[in-house]
From TrEMBL:
The lineage of its organism: Eukaryota, Viridiplantae, Streptophyta, Embryophyta, Tracheophyta. This is Uncharacterized protein.
Amino acid sequence: MQGQSCMLEAPRVVTIRQGARNINRSVQIMNVASVPSTESGSNTKSYVRVGVLGASGYTGSEIVRLLALHPIFQVTLMTADRKAGQSLSSVFPHLLAQELPDLIAINDADFSKVDGVFCCLPHGTTQEIIAALPTNLKVVDLSADFRLRDVNEYEEWYHGPHRAPHLQKEAVYGLTELRRDKIQSARLVANPGCYPTSVQLPLVPLLENQLIEKDGIIIDAKSGVSGAGRSAKEANLYTEIAEGLHSYGVTNHRHVPEIEQGLTEAAGSKVTVSFTPHLIPMSRGMQSTIYVQMKSGITVDDLHWHLSDRYKNEEFVRILPKGAVPHTHHVRGSNYCFVSVFKDRIPGRAIILSVIDNLVKGASGQALQNFNLMVGVKEDCGLLQQPLFP
Ligand SMILES: NC(=O)C1=CN([C@@H]2O[C@H](COP(=O)(O)OP(=O)(O)OC[C@H]3O[C@@H](n4cnc5c(N)ncnc54)[C@H](OP(=O)(O)O)[C@@H]3O)[C@@H](O)[C@H]2O)C=CC1
Ligand SMILES: CC(=O)N[C@@H](CCC(=O)OP(=O)(O)O)C(=O)O
């Protein structure tokens, strides 16, 4: 996949309407025969109409930002709660350049006018909203509502009843590089959490290949504050965050069952992890520092070789050269995950560093990667922006 554009073989020219403008692009859409014509009698059609539920939040607006460069998807519906009735550019002036519909309340949305939705709503509120959507829509849900296969586990960790358990069975967990086949044919994708993305990308291949012990995995993770969303919270005030650092969710963060679910599947038997997240004074970015015990006879070079081999054809997961230290700035604003592996001073142990942008590979970028797959366009469409450094 590396270095390829959105264009597939045997392209055809379609005219894509973006706001008031028609733009000719050479594209091939493989899987969208059911997309209805939106301009009868004209020679223009063949874009996919997408809705963004929760566009006035951080992940919703990040999807709109990424879609500005997407050749096939056009935002035709955006919803908000408190901000309903406003234009998106009045909420987020950095998105002024795009021509977009106004934000409306979900209850006023006409879902016959979209082909798919990104659901960027708080977990807990999402289940009933997705359950009420027309079943022909493709849905990528960024909340945690459909990530855990066991409904009882969801109810335990999220402290409430699940209101759409039938959809829990249908939902495909959307860790793109590791579940591509299932995502391609899914109608509903549960986009992974940011911490679980940064942890599972390096650990799943190592557990699957029995290179590391499943016991004693320690994850020390740090996130920028945008991970907590845009709504005002006392704990996220500048005065609480700046010039300091603190852990939270010690021993009981709700990403524990999500991480353990993925690692258990990879290892073939129950994995229990130590996971401690921290909030650090930056807006976006995340690092997971992971301490693992290697299997007897396995070296750090083996881990490095296997990860490099597993991801050698992947655009967005990069295993760094030995000794290189990733920085959140290396992935800022991009869909990349940078991983490096070090030999620990304690014999037999290794240290794995994994960095992502929580809003892109940890949320909206991976959501777009999944939606591309579900619709049948090239997976990296709209996602090849290079990181913003520093
Ligand atoms: N931030 C991150 O890094 C990540 C977030 N996620 C998940 O993505 C989802 C969205 O997160 P994020 O964008 O950060 O959250 P924000 O708080 O920034 O945005 C939430 C959005 O949902 C809308 N909303 C809130 N309550 C309701 C409601 N009852 N009915 C309808 N709309 C509502 C808000 O509208 P308004 O502002 O108008 O009130 C806003 O548009 C969450 O489930 C989160 O867990 C996943 C991975 C990473
Ligand atoms: C800094 C911060 O508060 N981060 C969020 C995680 C955001 C995310 O990826 O996850 P969800 O989709 O599961 O909400 C938290 O710790 O709850």
